Automatic annotation (TrEMBL):
Domain HTH araC/xylS-type: 215-304
PANTHER family: ARAC-FAMILY TRANSCRIPTIONAL REGULATOR (PTHR43130), HTH-TYPE TRANSCRIPTIONAL REGULATOR RV1931C (PTHR43130:SF3)
Annotated PROSITE patterns: HTH_ARAC_FAMILY_2 (PS01124)
Keyword ATP-binding attributed: no
Keywords: Transcription, Transcription regulation
Name assigned to this protein: DJ-1/PfpI family protein
SUPFAM superfamilies referenced in this protein's UniProt entry, alphabetically: Class I glutamine amidotransferase-like (SSF52317), Homeodomain-like (SSF46689)
Amino acid sequence: MSRVVFVLLPEVHLLDLAGPVQVFDSAAHLGRPYTLHYVAERPPVRSAQGLPLSAGTEWPALDAEDLVVVPGWRAPTLRGGPAPGEDVLRRLRRHHAAGGTVASVCAGADALGRAGLLDGRRCTTHHDLQDELAARHPRATVVRDVLFTTDDRVVTSAGIASGIDLALHLVALRHGPALAARVARTMVVHARRNGDQPQASAMLRHRSHLDDTVHRVQDLIDARFAEPLPLAALASRAGVSERTLTRLFTRATGGLTPLRYQQTLRLERAEHLLGQGATAESAAREVGFEDARMLRRLRSRAAR
């Protein structure tokens, strides 16, 4: 069982908190072992939107598989915002030193900076606060115009709604992009990735649509992309004709047929295996090709 601990500071933004909470709660309902915890120094905590939030003062025992998240708060400047106490900062440092992951949304990056966790690492925050974050923590490298950054188990995200992207990314890292796509689909949001990555996983890149029939077929292809998946079988599982499935799939994914989508997943996995030192033959067989000829053909096509 993995614990996700949310540290609530005064004037916390509700969406900074609720976005990541919903992602991990949805992952738990899809069978992943998460429990959510909320801690504060002095509860109840008044949110930036006026809603009082209840939280305990006792922290659960943590191990390296657990995650601590600091949502952001409303303040005109970081200097004018809430100052987490030394106990919170010490717990953040201790959890990271023990191999755990710490994360922040928006202004929450300042709390990680106060704990010394941004020193020598890449980070980001809301665009209105980036200059001040860089000035307050000069040993950090503040990255602009990205949704989130990850650096040695320190994860920071930009403004408010980007906490959803951060949480989806962490789910993808821990459980694979297929689960992250299912969570995003449950939440009816686009499954986005970090803005400084040139290309997101195909499992996420082609999921930013609302066609439930196509999502069901993608779920099947995602789970069994190395197997033969005839169009007739996919259409039967979706309860539509082959022609209808092809039309819906092409429209939802921006021009891909189910076969091209499957080939894209195979190629992406094969590229990863090749990058890990696998031979072309072994990578091709691993992803479902009889030999390396088709893999070479698809790689050549993708490089054009």
